[in-house]
Amino acid sequence: MSAPDPTPRPGPDALTLLSFALLGVLALLLLWPLLTGGAMPSPALVGGLLLLRLGLQVLRARRDERLRRPASWALDLLLIALIFGQLSRQPGG
Predict the structure, then answer these.
(1) Between these two residues, 3 and 73, which has the higher pLDDT value?
(2) Assign residue 37 a region: left if phi > 0, alpha if psi is -120 to 50, beta otherwise?
(3) Which of the two ends of the chain, N or C, has the fewest CB atoms closer than 10 A to its terminal CB?
(4) What is the separation of C-alpha 28 from the centre of its chain, rounded to a whole number of angstroms?
(5) What value does the mean pLDDT take over residues 59-65?
């Protein structure tokens, strides 16, 4: 008795790919100074990219109810608030 051939899973949609791409850009932005000894990226840039990714997550959740994770969104918002809070405490910022 052989198992039926499983149907191939569909690939990720465009919003998922864009979300992963944003994570990749964030990873490169944050790892590059550690690897090269260069300057850290602007906290505003990092916070803005995180806000954009959060918006993508909310858009994805509107299309698929299984992706609704309010606790994850709250954690993302807390991280973004900490980044912008730190940015506001910098001299000249």
Answers:
(1) 73
(2) left
(3) N
(4) 13
(5) 88
Task: Quickly tell me which residue has 């979300």 as its tokens.
Answer: 19
CA pair distance 39, 85, nearest whole angstrom: 20
Q: Is 62 exposed, middle or buried (0-12, 13-18, 19+ CB in 10 A)?
A: exposed
In the predicted model, is pLDDT for residue 88 greater than 60? yes
* Contacts made by residues 62-70, CB under 8 angstroms, sequence distance 24+: 63/15
Instruction: Give me the DSSP letters along the chain.
Output: --PPPPPPPPPP-HHHHHHHHHHHHHHHHHHHHHHH--PPPPHHHHHHHHHHHHHHHHHHHHH-GGG--HHHHHHHHHHHHHHHHHHHHSTT-
Residue 5 confidence class, pLDDT cut points 50, 70, 90: low
If one compares 92 and 87, the residue with the highest pLDDT of the two is 87
